[in-house]
From TrEMBL:
Keywords: Membrane, Transmembrane, Transmembrane helix. The chain crosses the membrane at residues 49-67, 79-100. InterPro entries: DUF6949. It holds the Pfam family DUF6949. This is Uncharacterized protein.
Length: 109
């Protein structure tokens, strides 16, 4: 495995782990699951605060909604695969940003 492929895989894993931690932390505090409905509460400070949260929590929310829809609504395989690719790419981007931030802060070498 090349170093670039290993770095990409590590970014995807970190992105999904960060998304899962954020969503589970939100659910523990708010006593309700996080979702994209947080953006539909009108123009308010908490709506603007939800944007950065959803940027990093989106891969987990996408996969949770996709897997739930697959069981409940019997969604087609193509839709599930497309959502998985989108969530994976999003996770890779957020994981890369998170790792770059840690490197810039001097936490990682």
């Amino acid at each position: 495995m090349t170093p670039e492929a290993l770095n990409t895989f590590f970014s995807i894993c970190i992105g999904f782990a960060l998304a899962g931690a954020l969503v589970n932390g939100y659910q523990a505090v708010a006593q309700r699951p996080a979702g994209f409905g947080l953006l539909q509460e009108g123009v308010a400070p908490k709506t603007f605060a939800a944007v950065p949260f959803l940027v990093f929590a989106a891969p987990f929310i996408i996969m949770r909604n996709t897997l739930r829809g697959m069981r409940v609504e019997s969604r087609r395989f193509e839709f599930v695969m497309m959502a998985t690719v989108i969530a994976g790419f999003w996770s890779m981007m957020s994981g890369t940003f998170f790792l770059m931030t840690l490197r810039a802060a001097g936490v990682l070498a």
